[in-house]
Design a protein that fits this description.
- The chain is an all-alpha fold and 212 residues long.
- The chain has a domain of 141 residues: Tetracycline Repressor, domain 2.
- 76% of the residues lie in helices and 0% in strands.
- 26% of the residues are buried.
Length: 212
């Protein structure tokens, strides 16, 4: 399955067997890291043969990549659902923050360190996919917010670039490993700084009433 297929159709063409492996690997990798986890261990813990595991995923790196891409596809579906809701732009931004925070807090320092040192090429691919996804969907919230007079009349391209750049800068292995902030706090601070800068007074009033 290609990157585009996986991102556009979450879970499509996945057998129950493959999804079971992916879901288990996600929890194990995100919690404990992946570098020291062997395919032998995973097959035993899942109660399947090594041949079955390798039939679905030829290598551990293939398995790692698909666990991350499946997560991105899931996140994308939740963001689209938020954007398609009947809420105002401020409320939609908050929903997006909550989705991103819930995702980021699944990653431990160990997992992020393993990505940085043992699979940087996978992270680069994921980062580029994430950039395109955020750019496409956040732009819709910005345009809506300007029509509702909740977002200042700055050029949407500038706002989108600043927001996606901030997210990419904070949610990356080097920053998350080196900072003293929790993942949750880092995302909240970044969004509060950025959003209070682009919201109108009306938008700020709505935003400050919402509990993140």
């Amino acid at each position: 399955m290609t990157l585009n297929e996986l991102i556009q159709i979450p879970g499509a063409n996945f057998s129950d067997e493959k999804l079971k492996i992916l879901n288990y690997a996600q929890e194990r990798f995100f919690r404990e890291g992946f570098y020291k986890v062997s395919m032998d261990e995973l097959s035993k813990e899942l109660g399947i043969s090594k041949s079955t595991l390798y039939k679905n995923f030829p290598s551990k790196m293939d398995l790692l990549q698909e666990t991350i891409l499946l997560l991105i596809a899931t996140v994308k579906s939740k963001i689209i659902a938020s954007i398609n809701s009947d809420k105002n732009a401020v409320e939609k931004f908050v929903l997006v923050i909550q989705v991103l925070t819930a995702t980021i807090t699944r990653f431990t320092d160990k997992f992020m360190s393993d990505l940085e040192h043992h699979a940087p090429q996978i992270w680069l691919k994921v980062d580029e996919t994430r950039k395109k996804m955020l750019y496409e969907h956040i732009s819709k919230i910005i345009i809506q917010g300007q029509k509702e007079q909740l977002i200042k009349d700055y050029p949407p391209e500038i706002i989108i670039t600043l927001i996606t750049g901030a997210i990419r800068g904070i949610v990356n292995p080097q920053f998350l490993i080196s900072t003293s902030f929790s993942y949750n706090d880092a995302v909240h601070y970044a969004f509060k700084i950025l959003l209070n800068g682009i919201f109108t007074k009306k938008g700020q009033t709505i935003f400050n009433k919402i509990k993140l």
